[in-house]
Design a protein that fits this description.
By secondary structure, the protein is of the alpha/beta class. The protein is about 25% helix and about 25% strand.
Protein backbone atom coordinates (compact mmCIF):
# COMPACT_ATOMS: atom_id res chain seq x y z
CA UNK A 1 0.00 0.00 0.00
CA UNK A 2 1.42 3.38 -1.02
CA UNK A 3 2.24 5.94 1.64
CA UNK A 4 0.29 9.25 1.48
CA UNK A 5 3.43 11.22 0.61
CA UNK A 6 4.00 8.93 -2.39
CA UNK A 7 0.62 9.86 -3.84
CA UNK A 8 0.28 13.55 -2.99
CA UNK A 9 2.65 16.57 -2.62
CA UNK A 10 2.39 16.78 1.16
CA UNK A 11 5.98 17.81 1.93
CA UNK A 12 7.10 21.02 0.19
CA UNK A 13 10.84 21.76 0.39
CA UNK A 14 11.78 22.76 3.91
CA UNK A 15 13.40 26.22 4.16
CA UNK A 16 16.57 26.10 6.21
CA UNK A 17 18.80 28.74 7.84
CA UNK A 18 22.22 29.24 6.26
CA UNK A 19 24.72 26.45 7.06
CA UNK A 20 21.97 24.33 8.67
CA UNK A 21 20.60 21.04 7.40
CA UNK A 22 17.33 19.49 8.58
CA UNK A 23 18.99 17.46 11.33
CA UNK A 24 20.88 20.43 12.77
CA UNK A 25 17.85 22.72 12.82
CA UNK A 26 15.85 19.98 14.52
CA UNK A 27 18.57 19.61 17.16
CA UNK A 28 18.60 23.38 17.66
CA UNK A 29 14.84 23.41 18.25
CA UNK A 30 14.93 20.41 20.58
CA UNK A 31 17.13 22.47 22.89
CA UNK A 32 14.47 25.19 23.29
CA UNK A 33 11.94 25.28 26.13
CA UNK A 34 10.58 27.64 28.76
CA UNK A 35 12.35 26.95 32.04
CA UNK A 36 9.03 26.29 33.81
CA UNK A 37 7.76 23.80 31.18
CA UNK A 38 8.10 20.01 31.60
CA UNK A 39 11.13 18.94 29.57
CA UNK A 40 9.59 15.65 28.45
CA UNK A 41 6.40 17.31 27.21
CA UNK A 42 8.33 19.96 25.28
CA UNK A 43 10.58 17.31 23.72
CA UNK A 44 7.57 15.36 22.42
CA UNK A 45 5.92 18.54 21.14
CA UNK A 46 9.07 19.62 19.30
CA UNK A 47 9.72 16.16 17.86
CA UNK A 48 6.20 16.09 16.43
CA UNK A 49 5.99 19.66 15.11
CA UNK A 50 9.48 21.03 14.46
CA UNK A 51 8.86 21.16 10.71
CA UNK A 52 5.93 23.53 11.32
CA UNK A 53 8.18 26.01 13.10
CA UNK A 54 10.66 25.88 10.22
CA UNK A 55 7.99 26.43 7.55
CA UNK A 56 6.75 29.40 9.60
CA UNK A 57 10.26 30.82 9.87
CA UNK A 58 10.55 30.49 6.09
CA UNK A 59 7.65 32.90 5.63
CA UNK A 60 9.46 35.53 7.74
CA UNK A 61 13.11 34.99 6.90
CA UNK A 62 13.35 37.83 4.36
CA UNK A 63 11.43 40.39 6.44
CA UNK A 64 12.86 43.25 8.50
CA UNK A 65 11.51 45.74 11.00
CA UNK A 66 9.30 45.39 14.06
CA UNK A 67 7.53 42.06 14.55
CA UNK A 68 4.81 41.06 17.01
CA UNK A 69 4.59 37.34 17.71
CA UNK A 70 1.22 36.48 19.24
CA UNK A 71 1.19 33.25 21.22
CA UNK A 72 4.98 33.08 21.33
CA UNK A 73 5.20 30.44 24.08
CA UNK A 74 6.87 27.84 23.97
CA UNK A 75 9.28 29.93 21.87
CA UNK A 76 10.39 27.49 19.16
CA UNK A 77 9.50 29.91 16.37
CA UNK A 78 10.69 32.81 18.54
CA UNK A 79 14.21 31.41 18.71
CA UNK A 80 14.34 30.78 14.96
CA UNK A 81 13.28 34.38 14.36
CA UNK A 82 15.73 35.72 16.93
CA UNK A 83 18.68 33.72 15.59
CA UNK A 84 18.02 33.74 11.86
CA UNK A 85 16.17 36.95 10.90
CA UNK A 86 16.71 40.68 11.29
CA UNK A 87 13.30 41.23 12.88
CA UNK A 88 12.98 43.12 16.18
CA UNK A 89 10.65 40.93 18.24
CA UNK A 90 7.83 41.86 20.60
CA UNK A 91 6.22 38.83 22.24
CA UNK A 92 2.69 38.24 23.51
CA UNK A 93 0.97 35.36 25.29
CA UNK A 94 -2.23 34.58 27.16
CA UNK A 95 -2.22 32.14 30.09
CA UNK A 96 -5.28 33.28 32.04
CA UNK A 97 -6.47 36.24 34.13
CA UNK A 98 -3.96 35.67 36.94
CA UNK A 99 -1.03 37.08 34.94
CA UNK A 100 0.05 40.75 34.94
CA UNK A 101 -0.04 42.83 31.72
CA UNK A 102 3.71 42.40 31.28
CA UNK A 103 5.54 39.31 32.51
CA UNK A 104 8.83 37.48 32.14
CA UNK A 105 9.91 33.95 31.30
CA UNK A 106 13.27 32.24 31.03
CA UNK A 107 13.95 30.45 27.75
CA UNK A 108 16.44 27.60 27.81
CA UNK A 109 18.22 26.79 24.55
CA UNK A 110 21.39 25.33 23.08
CA UNK A 111 23.63 27.81 21.28
CA UNK A 112 24.98 27.20 17.79
CA UNK A 113 28.28 26.31 19.50
CA UNK A 114 26.52 23.60 21.53
CA UNK A 115 26.51 25.47 24.86
CA UNK A 116 23.54 25.31 27.22
CA UNK A 117 22.17 28.86 27.54
CA UNK A 118 19.27 30.78 28.99
CA UNK A 119 17.73 34.16 28.25
CA UNK A 120 15.15 36.21 30.08
CA UNK A 121 12.34 37.36 27.83
CA UNK A 122 9.56 39.85 28.47
CA UNK A 123 6.10 39.35 27.00
CA UNK A 124 2.83 41.27 26.91
CA UNK A 125 -0.07 39.36 28.40
CA UNK A 126 -3.59 39.80 26.99
CA UNK A 127 -6.49 37.89 25.47
CA UNK A 128 -6.62 38.67 21.75
CA UNK A 129 -10.38 38.01 21.64
CA UNK A 130 -11.54 40.15 24.52
CA UNK A 131 -8.94 42.91 24.91
CA UNK A 132 -7.60 45.72 22.77
CA UNK A 133 -3.98 45.00 21.95
CA UNK A 134 -1.70 47.18 24.15
CA UNK A 135 0.03 48.78 21.16
CA UNK A 136 -0.54 51.91 19.15
CA UNK A 137 -1.79 52.05 15.58
CA UNK A 138 0.77 51.17 12.89
CA UNK A 139 3.36 49.84 15.35
CA UNK A 140 4.56 46.72 13.55
CA UNK A 141 5.85 45.68 10.14
CA UNK A 142 4.91 42.06 10.72
CA UNK A 143 2.56 40.09 12.98
CA UNK A 144 2.77 36.33 13.53
CA UNK A 145 -0.58 34.75 14.35
CA UNK A 146 0.29 31.06 14.43
CA UNK A 147 -1.85 28.21 15.76
CA UNK A 148 -4.29 30.62 17.41
CA UNK A 149 -7.23 31.23 15.09
CA UNK A 150 -8.49 27.65 15.49
CA UNK A 151 -8.74 28.21 19.28
CA UNK A 152 -10.86 31.37 19.09
CA UNK A 153 -14.37 31.07 20.45
CA UNK A 154 -16.18 34.25 19.49
CA UNK A 155 -15.04 36.64 16.78
CA UNK A 156 -11.99 35.98 14.57
CA UNK A 157 -12.83 38.99 12.40
CA UNK A 158 -12.48 41.31 15.39
CA UNK A 159 -9.05 39.81 16.15
CA UNK A 160 -7.90 40.22 12.55
CA UNK A 161 -9.09 43.83 12.55
CA UNK A 162 -7.04 44.44 15.68
CA UNK A 163 -4.01 42.85 14.03
CA UNK A 164 -4.59 45.12 11.06
CA UNK A 165 -4.77 48.15 13.36
CA UNK A 166 -1.32 47.53 14.84
CA UNK A 167 0.23 46.75 11.44
CA UNK A 168 1.77 49.51 9.37
CA UNK A 169 0.38 50.03 5.86
CA UNK A 170 1.48 47.11 3.68
CA UNK A 171 2.66 45.24 6.78
CA UNK A 172 2.70 41.45 6.69
CA UNK A 173 0.56 38.97 8.58
CA UNK A 174 1.90 35.42 8.89
CA UNK A 175 -0.81 32.96 9.88
CA UNK A 176 -0.67 29.20 10.36
CA UNK A 177 -3.47 26.84 11.36
CA UNK A 178 -4.51 23.19 10.96
CA UNK A 179 -6.15 22.37 7.63
CA UNK A 180 -9.58 20.89 8.34
CA UNK A 181 -9.61 19.48 4.77
CA UNK A 182 -6.32 17.58 5.27
CA UNK A 183 -5.95 14.11 3.82
CA UNK A 184 -6.11 12.54 7.27
CA UNK A 185 -9.52 14.07 7.88
CA UNK A 186 -10.78 12.86 4.49
CA UNK A 187 -9.66 9.36 5.47
CA UNK A 188 -11.27 9.68 8.89
CA UNK A 189 -14.64 10.70 7.44
CA UNK A 190 -14.60 7.96 4.81
CA UNK A 191 -13.92 5.39 7.54
CA UNK A 192 -16.63 6.81 9.80
CA UNK A 193 -14.23 8.25 12.39
CA UNK A 194 -14.77 11.65 14.02
CA UNK A 195 -12.62 14.64 12.99
CA UNK A 196 -13.45 16.95 15.90
CA UNK A 197 -10.99 17.91 18.60
CA UNK A 198 -11.41 16.35 22.07
CA UNK A 199 -12.35 18.38 25.12
CA UNK A 200 -9.28 19.74 26.87
CA UNK A 201 -8.13 19.85 30.45
CA UNK A 202 -6.85 23.35 29.66
CA UNK A 203 -10.42 24.58 29.17
CA UNK A 204 -12.22 25.94 26.08
CA UNK A 205 -9.08 27.59 24.70
CA UNK A 206 -7.21 24.30 24.98
CA UNK A 207 -9.15 22.73 22.10
CA UNK A 208 -9.69 23.60 18.44
CA UNK A 209 -13.02 25.39 18.35
CA UNK A 210 -13.13 26.02 14.57
CA UNK A 211 -10.68 24.74 11.96
CA UNK A 212 -10.43 26.24 8.47
CA UNK A 213 -9.93 25.34 4.83
CA UNK A 214 -7.67 27.28 2.48
CA UNK A 215 -10.75 28.79 0.84
CA UNK A 216 -12.13 29.87 4.24
CA UNK A 217 -8.89 31.70 4.97
CA UNK A 218 -8.78 33.36 1.57
CA UNK A 219 -12.32 34.70 2.07
CA UNK A 220 -11.69 35.75 5.66
CA UNK A 221 -8.40 37.52 4.99
CA UNK A 222 -9.79 39.27 1.93
CA UNK A 223 -12.76 40.43 4.00
CA UNK A 224 -10.37 41.87 6.59
CA UNK A 225 -8.30 43.78 4.03
CA UNK A 226 -5.37 41.43 3.44
CA UNK A 227 -3.94 40.37 0.08
CA UNK A 228 -2.38 36.92 -0.19
CA UNK A 229 1.31 36.64 -1.01
CA UNK A 230 1.88 32.97 -0.17
CA UNK A 231 -0.47 30.15 0.82
CA UNK A 232 0.38 26.45 0.93
CA UNK A 233 -0.37 23.31 2.91
CA UNK A 234 2.18 20.87 4.30
CA UNK A 235 2.44 17.86 6.55
CA UNK A 236 4.63 18.43 9.59
CA UNK A 237 4.39 15.08 11.33
CA UNK A 238 3.53 11.50 10.46
CA UNK A 239 0.52 11.24 8.16
CA UNK A 240 -1.85 8.64 9.62
CA UNK A 241 -4.43 8.62 6.82
CA UNK A 242 -3.49 5.03 6.02
CA UNK A 243 -4.58 3.98 9.51
CA UNK A 244 -8.18 4.72 8.54
CA UNK A 245 -8.47 3.69 4.89
CA UNK A 246 -6.37 2.48 1.97
CA UNK A 247 -5.18 5.86 0.67
CA UNK A 248 -5.08 4.56 -2.91
CA UNK A 249 -8.88 4.48 -2.78
CA UNK A 250 -8.94 8.23 -2.14
CA UNK A 251 -6.84 9.29 -5.15
CA UNK A 252 -9.70 9.76 -7.61
CA UNK A 253 -11.81 11.46 -4.93
CA UNK A 254 -9.30 14.20 -4.04
CA UNK A 255 -7.02 14.41 -7.08
CA UNK A 256 -8.58 17.75 -8.10
CA UNK A 257 -7.23 19.37 -4.92
CA UNK A 258 -3.97 17.50 -4.53
CA UNK A 259 -2.16 20.71 -3.46
CA UNK A 260 -4.64 21.22 -0.63
CA UNK A 261 -4.22 18.11 1.51
CA UNK A 262 -1.41 18.93 3.95
CA UNK A 263 -1.96 18.93 7.69
CA UNK A 264 -1.37 22.67 8.15
CA UNK A 265 -2.05 25.84 6.18
CA UNK A 266 0.73 28.43 5.96
CA UNK A 267 -0.13 31.98 4.89
CA UNK A 268 1.72 35.24 4.38
CA UNK A 269 -0.41 38.20 3.38
CA UNK A 270 -0.16 41.97 3.22
CA UNK A 271 -2.39 44.67 4.66
CA UNK A 272 -3.39 46.52 1.50
CA UNK A 273 -7.00 47.77 1.83
CA UNK A 274 -9.58 48.70 4.46
CA UNK A 275 -11.26 45.88 6.34
CA UNK A 276 -15.00 45.49 5.95
CA UNK A 277 -17.01 46.42 8.99
CA UNK A 278 -19.58 43.64 9.45
CA UNK A 279 -19.33 39.85 9.76
CA UNK A 280 -19.02 37.55 6.74
CA UNK A 281 -22.06 35.33 6.33
CA UNK A 282 -20.02 32.21 5.54
CA UNK A 283 -18.49 32.27 9.04
CA UNK A 284 -21.22 33.70 11.33
CA UNK A 285 -24.85 32.98 12.08
CA UNK A 286 -27.56 33.98 14.58
CA UNK A 287 -26.62 37.66 14.42
CA UNK A 288 -28.99 40.44 13.41
CA UNK A 289 -29.14 40.63 9.60
CA UNK A 290 -27.77 44.19 9.73
CA UNK A 291 -24.51 42.81 11.17
CA UNK A 292 -23.94 40.23 8.42
CA UNK A 293 -22.88 40.40 4.79
Amino acid sequence: MAAPEDLFPLNPPLPLPPTFDADSVQRFLEGVRPSDAPAAEMAIYCREDWRRFVYTWGLARDLTGDCLELGANPYFTTMLLAEFTQLRLTLANYFGPQFPPVAEQIILYTSRAGEQCSKKTTFHHFNTESERFPFGDSTFDCVLFCEIIEHLQMDPVAVLREIKRVLRPHGRLILTTPNVARLENVARLVSGANIYDPYSGYGPYGRHNREYTRHDLFLLLDYCGFELEVMFTADVHENRAGSFVDVNRLVDLVEFRREDLGQYIFVRCQSTKPAKTKKPLFLYRSYHPSELE
